[in-house]
Design a protein that fits this description.
Number of domains: 1
Organism: Fumia xinanensis
Distance between the termini: 29 Å
Number of strands: 0
GO biological process, one term: glycerophospholipid biosynthetic process
Keywords: Lipid biosynthesis, Lipid metabolism, Membrane, Phospholipid biosynthesis, Phospholipid metabolism, Transferase, Transmembrane, Transmembrane helix
CATH architecture: Up-down Bundle
Structural class: mainly alpha
CATH class: Mainly Alpha
CATH topology: Four Helix Bundle (Hemerythrin (Met), subunit A)
Radius of gyration: 16 Å
Strand content: under 5%
CATH superfamily: CDP-alcohol phosphotransferase transmembrane (TM) domain
Order of helices and strands: HHHHHH
Number of helices: 6
Membrane topology: Multi-pass membrane protein
Largest sheet: none
Shape: globular
Helix content: over 70%
Subcellular location: Membrane
Length: 176
């Protein structure tokens, strides 16, 4: 196993660690889930950097990296939805996008090996989600109206990335 894939595995392990920290750690340690999420984001950046820098991009990594992104975002959004209604909108948009792309992608491309690698718009969406979710974790008393307003930006990028990835899936299907 190469270093980028190992970092992705670490990120997958951090998913249940984050959920446990969010729900089990005392309220005055609110920063601990934020640190775990930032660590997850750091491993995400590092695995991509090392994969490209040392030419260690693998089909497994191309599959696991976006899976780790999705599981991380899904978990953090679910956790935050429990205490912040504003994040519930993101949850619904995120789940619809991911399920639709998974079903359409699998139906049209027939195999995860034909999956679309991460594109700039997916990366921007992930960064915006990390920023918003970290802000919600670091400032747990943020007014819901402000959180909702801030959530509109990643929500728009989720929708845009859905459209762009759908176009990529259709283009890839036509090439197969």
């Amino acid at each position: 196993m190469n270093l980028p894939n190992a970092l992705t595995i670490v990120r997958l392990i951090l998913v249940p660690v984050f959920a446990a920290a969010y729900f089990l750690v005392p309220e005055n340690y609110f920063y601990l889930p934020a640190i775990i999420l930032l660590l997850s984001g750091l491993t995400d950046m590092l695995d991509g950097y090392f994969a490209r820098r040392f030419h260690e991009i693998t089909p497994l990594g191309q599959f696991l990296d976006p899976l780790a992104d999705k599981l991380t975002m899904f978990t953090v959004i679910i956790c935050l939805s429990v205490s912040h209604r504003a994040v519930l909108m993101l949850f619904l948009i995120f789940v619809v996008k991911e399920l639709a792309l998974a079903v359409i992608g699998l139906a049209l491309l027939k195999s995860w090996r034909n999956s679309i690698p991460a594109k700039w718009y997916g990366k921007v969406t992930t960064i915006l989600l990390y920023a918003l979710l970290c802000a919600a974790l670091i400032f747990p008393k943020m007014p819901e109206s402000l959180l909702f307003t801030l959530a509109l930006i990643p929500a728009a990028f989720i929708i845009l990335s859905f459209i762009f990835y759908l176009k990529e899936i259709i283009k890839r299907k036509d090439a197969l």
